[in-house]
Amino acid sequence: MKAIMLGVLAAFFFAAAFIFNHSMELSGGSWVWSGTLRYFFMLPFLALIVIMRGNFLDLLREMRSNWPRWVLWSSVGFGLFYAPLCYSASFAPGWLIAGTWQFTIIAGSLLSPLFYETTHTVNGVVRIRGRIPVKGLMFSLIILIGIALLQVEQASSLSLSYALLAVAPVVFAAFAYPLGNRKMMDVCGDRLDTYQRVFGMTLASMPFWLILAVFGIFTAGMPSRTQVVQSFIVAISSGVIATILFFSATDQVRGNMQKLATVEATQSMEVLFTVLGELVLLSTPLPSLLSWTGMLIIMVGMILHSFRSHGAAPTITTKLCDNKKEMILTDVSTKE
């Protein structure tokens, strides 16, 4: 129960990004500064966490050994993920972006063939190319139906081009986030813990954010004090607190796939928290019944997908051959 509560709290703080990005847009702030300031503020806090854990120098040595890949995939996983989300806030409320963002579960499944799964056997380490989990995608289609319902109201109230500008960047970000993070997991291997990797990726993505900041200075000018304060809130709430809470929740149930699936499913609450937050803080109009239905379907789809992905563990069978046991992997399924 404690892990579930931590997961729900994490979803609450993650929702701050969607709420305040929309708030900054409504107050005239540029999407450029919504993205760059968040990561600028996150950097010292994450550095402090890694330093307190005594892993700072190990991380620097690891980054120096392969810095081009660190910069490339960190820019994809963080830069090309968060900048489009901030841009889409110019065209749609936060609850719509939060709902559409759940497409990342489907995107992660579709990216599976680009990666390998490592399996340890008595004959050594075997690398097997991932495959698209067709059965899992059946549950993902539920999420897609919910997202489609969210877009119906949006499309009816906006022009097609305007609606696409609200949706297309989010879909792009949904692919960039798992792609960059998985590539960085391949680069890091087992040599770094999660906190080191998150801080390392934030540090390595700084060239991207600095370039975007220069672009922002020439196109939108310097950010207002209000936007700086709200970006700081997003950085602490979504970038630091939510991340630590979610990692703590998953660490508590590590090794128990059913409980892990339950914790991951709590992130579907982001959509609901975003709606409530915008209603209270921004006086956003109440979503229509159709939109509420879409959000409910998305949440159900996420829960079903999470349990399905963790329930499809590889099956290992043992047989006797030449008077010795050989472990044979009889079913390999890619899990999200």
Automatic annotation (TrEMBL):
Superkingdom, natural source: Bacteria
Endpoints of the signal sequence: none
Keyword set includes Transmembrane: yes
Keywords from the named record: Membrane, Transmembrane, Transmembrane helix
Transmembrane feature ranges: 39-58, 70-90, 96-116, 136-152, 158-177, 198-222, 228-248, 260-283
Protein known as: Putative multidrug resistance efflux transporter
Record organism: Sporolactobacillus nakayamae
Source taxonomy: Bacteria, Bacillati, Bacillota, Bacilli, Bacillales
